[in-house]
């Protein structure tokens, strides 16, 4: 039994499932599920009941959660007390992540873990952003770096491309093209697109306005600012929108279909930071992200390293 397993059990209990717990902890679901199963085997008790209502802690599970919270609180207290006694200030790394675990596709989890390993004892604060505000926390100084998908507006930001992956077209399962296997860019440009609540330059890219030479939006639904909002809107309209392929893998939805499109430019995962931020710790964070991407690029299907 280790502290990681304690955190996993608490997250599953509080989130009501393994998938939302993995999303909250910015880790992949399979190793989280395996760790909890190993813990149940070690203890010889069942901590969770799996049902159509979700994942619910058993009586033993709730007892474990209560005790685990106490243990983690004590660990934090001991760590803070020791640091305080020797005058060591706690290092806090603040990172904005676009759409949570979807920010860098399958690279998100190993990158976050690399930051934890690269700054031992540091607290990592993850700030989840949406289409409309992916650099706002960076602009105001609430975070040190931001995981983004360009284009990014603002001369005050420097943007380092890390890796790229293909984009695809997403439509509702009822869409006339839902069963089409492959489309050309010309075919896609004739389709009305889902409006995005985002900076104009960014929205135009994902709505393909830049390729079309103008806007063609579906009038039946309003703009959305999140992946889940886009998926929901597509299930009830004949609109379409482009997304990175990793998004469709990590956030599957029975109500939408993913279509390959020839001729689309790739989606680029990048790290943004303030040009005025010359601190060594910021540069080290960027270096750690780049190194983690180099090490784990094979986890991103069809991914290409850019750094």
Could you explain the architecture of this structure?
Residues 1-58 form the HTH lysR-type domain. Belongs to the LysR transcriptional regulatory family. This is LysR family transcriptional regulator. By secondary structure, this protein is an alpha/beta fold. The chain folds into three domains: 3-85, Arc Repressor Mutant, subunit A (Orthogonal Bundle); 92-164 and 268-305, D-Maltodextrin-Binding Protein, domain 2 (3-Layer(aba) Sandwich), CATH 3.40.190.10; 167-262, D-Maltodextrin-Binding Protein, domain 2, CATH 3.40.190. Helices cover 41% and strands 21% of the residues. It has helices at residues 3-15, 18-25, 29-43, 59-85, 108-118, 136-139, 185-188, 200-206, 209-212, 227-235, 245-250, 280-296; strands at residues 48-51, 54-57, 92-98, 123-129, 145-148, 157-165, 167-172, 182-184, 240-244, 256-262, 267-274, 304-305. The chain is globular.
